[in-house]
Design a protein that fits this description.
Blueprint lengths: L13 E3 H8 L3 H10 L5 E4 L8 E5 H8 L12
Antiparallel strand pairs: 1-3, 2-3
Helix pairs in contact: 1-2
């Protein structure tokens, strides 16, 4: 399988925010709120622009590390 990651090893496995919400046991709405505020680890917004919706993706690896209690630093600020 080819590596389509944005940063090698960081985004090689991504999930949708809805799936992250399910894993965390929180509502979809709250998961999107956390993603927009930059409080959900490993989130990257794809597409969208000023006044337009983008698609949020979550690094499954970073989410799992965060759940395991590891300190996960943000990759880039969400714009």
């Amino acid at each position: 399988m080819p590596d389509t990651s944005i940063k090698k090893g960081v985004f090689s496995e991504t999930i949708m925010v809805e799936e992250a919400a399910h894993i965390l046991g929180i509502s979809r709405r709250y998961a999107f709120e956390l993603a927009r505020r930059g409080e959900l680890p490993g989130v990257r917004r794809l597409g969208g622009g000023e006044g337009k919706r983008g698609k949020y993706m979550v690094s499954k690896i970073l989410l799992e590390q965060w759940l395991a209690g590891k300190n996960v630093l943000p990759i880039d600020p969400i714009l």
